[in-house]
Amino acid sequence: MDSLVKNLLGVLAAGLVIWLIYSLAFDRTGSMSGEGDVKVRVEHSDLEIQVRATGELQARNSVKITGPSGMRTAGIFRTTISDLIPEGTVVEEGDYVATLDRSEVTHQIQATEAELERINNQLVQLRIDTALEMQSLRDQLINQRSVLEEREIQLAQSKYEPQMTIRQAEIDFQRAERTYNQQKSNYLLKQEQAAARIAEVRSTHRQEQMKLDNLNELAEEFTVRSPAPGMVIYQRSWGGRKGPGSEITPWDPTVAELPDLSEFISRTFVNEIDISKVSVGQDVQITVDAFPENTYTGRVTEVANIGQQLRNQDARVFEVTILLNDSDSLLRPAMTTGNRILVDRFEEVLHLPLEAVHRDTVPYVIAEVDGRPIRQEVVMGAANNIRFTVAAGVQEDQNVYLAYSGDKSELPFVELERETKEKALQDIREDRAAREEKRRQRSREFRDETPAPRRSSNGGSVIIIN
To answer: Is residue 270 helix, strand or coil?
Structure first.
């Protein structure tokens, strides 16, 4: 009896071991989900391709507040902002905005004043020297005139003298006359020469005086005043915003701006990986960090052709300008924006998460067929940052593994039929070409319809929204 019980227990134990081994093997084939398995269903719906980027609000139209316009003419190629009123200050036309560093223009004024003083001294000395020289020449001319008259008298008195005496008197008279004419001609030339020297010095004096007047006017322009009423916004560039200590050059004289708050753009930068997807005319959904509950719409108006490297960033980016369709009194320049650029929308397509695809020689997914996992080849279409469209290989609502705990290499691999694969790839190419042509056409139409922004630098009306 005891042996029978022992045999029975042995059979039960052996069966339990066999069942455990079978269960483990069964789990590894995937007919039952392991603890690490994650499945999703193939969805059939619309899929949007978006490019996301952070940007900054700017007024589309603005009046530029610029520094002195004559810096380059004066040989001043850079100066710095010494003082600038706080950003957001509302000013009237003619109100104080900023002060620029006057050290360079002051140095030039001092140098010009010293040069003017030297020229004045030179002119006085030249007049004195000319007066003395001309006085000496006049005295010589008067003396020679007396000599000439004496020789003329001697010649008249010698008419009763011998012929040789008469001839000597004629020679002395001719010599005196010739000397007188030479001195007279020399006097006239010296007079013209002195007048020319004085005119030259006077011309230099006028030029230096004009330069001094221009420098004094330029120095007054180093106190920058508003050309129109509006709200002062600091000028922004790739190096950051301008403020006290920032450089002003003849090529970039803008100190600040007076924005038109009735129309805004979002200025953003897209990385070089995604820039090929962005084009003029694409729709954009915009959010503002200051008012996360509000959503605005816009369209891409400009895409840079050349990338740039921003400060503190390694990757190159391309500037993209987005025009907001909406006007809101809450919006202000320099607010941070979130921009979702709609690159494309695929309607009623099969799509899966990107985590579901695996790559060997061809892309495949681990799909569930008749309750068992297989490696199914797929044809991938367009993709966004999360999901991709499936042109062939799976069906709607079919289960696909996002995470598979077993050994993928042991699963059977199912290739697509050649005709099915080629047709899917051809459909993708044709669809891509059609969408690209549509995108180009939309960009051309948008450029024709959209006027260029106005960037005035010499005043104008600016709307302030309270």
So the answer is: strand
DSSP secondary structure string for all residues of 363-423: EEEEEEETTEEEEEE-EEEEE-SSEEEEEES--TT-EEEEE--S-GGGS-EEPPPHHHHHH
Question: 């549509």: which residue's tokens?
Answer: 438
> Any residues with CB less than 8 A from the CB of 263 and at least 6 apart, and which?
59, 60, 61, 323, 324, 327
Bridge partners of residue 344, in order along the sequence: 49
Q: What is the pLDDT of residues 153-170, one digit of tens each?
A: 888 888 888 889 888 988
**Residue 464 CB contacts under 8 Å (≥ 6 apart), including other chains:** 90, 229, 230, 231, 261
- Which residue, among 262, 178, 218, has the nearest Cα to 69 in the 3D structure? 218
Structure tokens at 350: 């099969």
Contacts with 118 (C-beta within 8 Å, 6 or more apart), sequence order: none
User: Under a CB-based contact definition with an 8 Å cutoff, are residues 106 and 257 in contact?
Assistant: no
Specify which residues 443 forms β-bridges with.
Answer: none
Query: Is there a contact between 260 and 64 (Cβ–Cβ < 8 Å)?
Result: no
Distance CA 54, CA 45 (A): 28
> Cβ atoms within 10 A of the Cβ of 345, count?
13
Residue keyed to tokens 């006290």: 244
pTM for the model: 0.61
Q: Tally the C-alpha atoms within 13 A of residue 50's C-alpha that lie toward its C-beta.
A: 15
Q: Which residues contact 358 (CB under 8 A, 6 or more apart)?
A: 364, 365, 366, 375, 408
Alpha-carbon span 236 to 220, nearest angstrom: 25
pLDDT in tens, 105-138: 999 999 999 999 999 999 999 899 989 988 998 9
Quick one: CA torsion of 426, 431, 434, 435, rounded to 10 degrees? -150
pLDDT tens track for 225-239: 999 998 898 887 656
Check: CB of residue 130 under 8 Å from CB of residue 194. Answer: yes
What own/partner pairs with CB < 8 Å and gap ≥ 24 does 206-214 have? 208/112, 208/115, 208/116, 208/119, 209/116, 211/112, 212/109, 212/112, 212/113, 212/116, 214/70, 214/73, 214/74
Residue matched to tokens 């068992």: 372
- Say if CB 246 and CB 224 are below 8 A apart: no
Mean pLDDT of 398-414: 91
3-state secondary structure of 41: strand
- Residue 92 predicted with pLDDT over 80: yes
Cα–Cα distance measured from residue 166 to residue 173, given in angstroms and rounded to the nearest whole number:
11
d(CA 201, CA 124): 10
